[in-house]
Amino acid sequence: MASMTVPDLHIDSLQSLAQAEVGCDFQIRALEGPGCEQLRNLGFCETLRVRKLAGGRNLICSVCGTRLAVSRDLAEQVIVSSLIAS
Amino acid sequence: MEKPPETVALAGNPNTGKTTLFNALCGAVEKVGNYAGATVSVRRGQCYTPHGRKLEIIDLPGCYALAGGSPDQRIASDVLLGQHEKHPRPDLVVCVLDASHLERHLQLALEIIELGVPVILALNMVDMAEKSGLRLDPVKLSEELGVPVVPIQADRGKGLVELKQAMGHPLPAVPEPLWEKGDAASRTRFGLDAAELAARRPTLHSSNLSDRLDTVLLHPVFGWVCFIGIMFALFWSIFSFAGIPMGWIESLQDFLIGQVENAMSEGDLRDLLTQGIIGGVGAVVIFLPQILLLFFFIGLLESSGYMARAAFLMDGFMAKAGLSGKAFLPLLSSFACAIPGVMATRTIDSPKERLVTIFVAPWMSCSARLPVYLLLVPMLLGGSEGGSMQALVFLSIYALGTLTAFVVARLLRGRLGPDEIKSHFLLELPPYRLPQWRYIFRHVLDRGWAFLKNAGTVILGIMILLWAATTYPKLESDDPAEVLAHTVVGRVSHFIEPIVKPLGFDGRTGTAILTSFAAREVFVGSMAQLFHVQESDDEQAMRGRIRTQMAAETWPDGRPMFGPAAVISLLIFYIYALQCLPTSAVVAREAGSWKWAVGQFLFMTLFAAGASLLVYQTARLFNLA
Hints:
The complex is a heterodimer of chains A (86) and B (625).
Chain A: E1 14-16, E2 25-31, H1 36-41, E3 49-54, E4 58-63, E5 66-71, H2 72-75, E6 78-82
Antiparallel strand pairs in A: 1-6, 2-3, 2-6, 3-4, 4-5
Chain B: E1 6-11, H1 18-26, E2 43-48, E3 54-59, H2 71-81, E4 92-98, H3 102-113, E5 119-124, H4 126-131, E6 135-136, H5 138-145, E7 149-151, H6 160-167, H7 184-198, E8 199-200, H8 209-217, H9 222-241, H10 243-263, H11 268-285, H12 288-304, H13 306-319, H14 328-336, H15 338-344, H16 351-360, H17 370-380, H18 387-416, E9 426-429, H19 437-471, H20 480-486, H21 488-500, H22 507-515, H23 522-530, H24 542-552, H25 564-576, H26 581-591, H27 594-621
Parallel strand pairs in B: 1-3, 1-4, 4-5, 5-7
Antiparallel strand pairs in B: 2-3, 6-8
């Protein structure tokens, strides 16, 4: 699959993981920000699916079966789209 | 000359079971834990292939990538890149992957393949992966990557023979990357495609036991209720369950004293054996059951996966002290012993946060302080030991040390300024697992043995010296006070009494504090000797005897010497003082400077003395002394 960039996507369907609704599945579309490298090292990358399990100061999400606690700052740098919308 | 064995490094993401595999391969019993960062240093061992060839196995700390990361992760990447000063580049790398998280863990494996070393992939925990509905195809994965792939269950020893065979001569060929070497995007894409072919994941996210447990244990309200409940239960059980084995040790001590007294006539040697050695060392050894229980419960929390949840819950609280949830694990470990706690700070990404955590870690009341607390706390509760009231006082003591540590951390963090590169809280929450009892018990036994070894060497030595110092030079007199005043200790006590008196202590207590600068737990034995606690034939506990003697002591004006104010002042001193030389040595190594260790020692000692002074003098002001 060709890699997608943010402008290629419908802006309406994009949101940060911090804004995303708890309990829903999303697809990671872009990683933007200074914490990107840390996220990529941990396995976050475009095209992966992510489920947001809990919100709050640090949110909990599940990526490829792994539960991760991610700070809100960092979650703001993960751009996702709803699986239905994509 | 015989050729040295080839070295095999066990590498992989954190918490993939590298140390469990290391233990299984080498017959070792290194500490394992169910959280990222259980291993923070390199361990070495040896094993033999089925053909009898010896291999040197190196267990590396987990890392997510070969660049960057926290200090423990950089150790691993330095070894793999051949940049570590002590460990040369390995001849073979066994990448240990958690089979349930192939998509993520393959990324590091591909980076290692790019290094041009022979590589074997060990797919660990295949049983759990298959149970979760994952369909694995190791043969397909091997074909895709061009490296041997061996499915294993390290905790049960399954797949080890196949893995050892793969490590046998000749070593696997150096794989050729099938993606664009050095291009992270190409590597990521290749890894994801390979993972999709080799591990088919069920499309729907199904809630498992860990998810269900987390809904309660990480709940904003119930999570905290559970956390406080677990911590209270932990301390309560330590003080309640340990009573029985402590009684056995007491009986053994009384039996030994009785045997020596029956077999020997009165004299200095008998006094040395009964008061100095059996009495002094016994007063410390009696706390062994409590220390073992503390290590057992911390091992249980680490092994079950709850530690990472506690770090998650504590992150918001820790942020108020300028730290992150990642500092919680080292700080909680420091309740057992500050040395592994200080070493565990290697998992903290921010260098400044790491330094601050190292600085305050010794304020978490370690197990060596337990004997002192156990001696003094009942004096505040009318002499009775055990029960929920004592657990509550202990919890307050631990909370006081922790809260002070947080306040100082906040101030220090403010002074050090922000990090050059901002680090964010990012933590893997491992699935809950049944504890690995074998390793927990072995770890507990190792710690118990280390405590006994300390009691048999350092503490025994100090007790003998102290006995000699309280016995010589001798004075022919019937007045024990006059005899003691004539001895070395009497003279030292006389000298230091003006210094410690404002804190509420007499010269003998001051001397006991001085002796405990080598090891805190020495204080109990020193008090037993310095206050001439008499042995008796009844089964009264040693601590009870010391407390009775302390309660009977008075100042020359008739005031009780160990009223509540003096006891609290003494407790405060022990909560805050850094009296552990090995901790200072580890701090110097981890902080990279003795200045930091010396500064920490001076600061904590002066802080302890200042806090004691404040408490005692305030109490005197209100006539509570």
